[in-house]
Amino acid sequence: MTAVEAFAPAKVNLTLHVTGQRADGYHLLDSLVAFADVGDRLWLTEGDAMRLSVSGPFADGVPLDHRNLVWRAAELAGWTGEIRIEKNLPHGAGIGGGSSDAAAVLNALGAADNGASLGADVPVCRVGRAVRMRGIGEVLDPAEGWPNLHAVLVNPGVHVPTPAVFKALQTKTNAPMSDVPETLADPFHWLAQQRNDLQSPATRLTPDIAPVLTALNDQPGVKFVRMSGSGATCFALFDEAAMRDAAADALTHAHPDWWVKACRLT
Ligand code: C5P
Question: How far apart are CA 50 and CA 159, in angstroms?
Fold first, then answer.
């Protein structure tokens, strides 16, 4: 039986405004989310029983049973078989990880369910291109005019627990994101007027984030730098692919222990 291949892109929160908190503790968000051309790969082969296997640079510590969101996504779609996962993305890193894997499985299986029961980020990861996310992640509006961007993603190799970052956020009711203009003269200027409200609590909890932001800001030609999600992955944007590639090379050389990826955000 031939396997169906699926791609689970890294998710990048270009902005992440926390606008409130529901009675059940979940936070209301307003976020512009884009997707990278780097990500995990999955291969699905239908069969009588569920079985997961994992390879790739971030295979260590990935559960191969029901704890893996991929397993639960297959169950949600009423499917069984073998799923091979190539883990190219760091997990617990603010760039989707398990949520994007689960979304890729739901998409590959054509599931009608949006996947919100698996995690707040699963519905947005099913979109796979620039989209404004609101509610706790279930209200999605495509950002039609948003341009593709050259980016470098950097993770310093620390795992940041999302609940702890939300807990450390002092003000839960913050101003929403501005509407994304349909035609945008300067996306970097627009982004600079928006925020990631989780960046300062995450930076306080995780001392490894600030040096990443500094190193990204020091790169020649850099137009914009911010943290994604609850961290620790940060991104830098460039308007030229050559400047982006030079920055990725320089960062890889200077910080061999960091995960550094040049990519295109869609
Ligand atoms: O839904 P998911 O399991 O991905 O969320 C992980 C944790 O992040 C939640 O348990 C919650 O503490 C926090 N969270 C939140 N509000 C959101 C999304 C996540 O408080 N909108």
Answer: 28
